[in-house]
Design a protein that fits this description.
Helix content: 25-40%
Keywords: Isomerase
Organism: Roseimicrobium gellanilyticum
Structural class: alpha+beta
CATH architecture: Roll
CATH topology: Nuclear Transport Factor 2, Chain: A
Oligomer: single chain
Radius of gyration: 15 Å
Distance between the termini: 47 Å
GO molecular function: isomerase activity
Strand content: over 45%
Protein name: Ketosteroid isomerase-like protein
Shape: globular
Pfam family, one: SnoaL_2
Number of helices: 3
């Protein structure tokens, strides 16, 4: 039998793969509890940080292909304890539009620490600490 921790790690891996492939609608919503909340700590792209509920997350996912040609998560470490999963990853994206000094077609990179709290096999809380490479 697969442990809860192993199941939770697989859920997070599957979620990040769905984000990479620009999943939208039900293909993305299936990962979240109905009352899920993503907390983004202040960073270069979002200096004030923010909170996103599921409807906002799904709306933002629809905009990704307009902004990014592609994106990829390279997971460096992933650990689970009970219903919590922590991920250290490098995110790399090719831009579809210019952002700041980066041109369309340019690459944006960030180092992420992402902490998930799961409930009933779905993401209930997600906290992102995003450290972007200079541009």
């Amino acid at each position: 039998m697969i442990s809860t921790e192993a199941q939770n790690i697989q859920l997070v891996r599957d979620y990040l793969a769905a984000v990479e492939s620009n999943a939208t609608g039900d293909a993305l919503a299936r990962f979240y509890t109905t009352d899920a909340l993503q907390i983004e700590l202040p960073n270069r792209l979002n200096p004030s940080g923010g909170h996103s509920d599921v409807p906002n997350l799904l709306k933002r996912a629809e905009q990704v292909p307009v902004i990014l040609q592609s994106q990829e998560y390279e997971i460096h470490s992933i650990v689970s304890q009970g219903d919590r999963v922590a991920v250290e990853a490098t995110w790399t994206a090719v831009l579809a539009v210019p952002i700041a000094s980066l041109p369309a077609g340019g690459t944006m990179m960030a180092h992420f620490a992402i902490f998930f709290e799961l409930r009933d096999g779905k993401i209930h809380r997600q906290r992102n600490y995003d450290c972007f490479e200079p541009w």
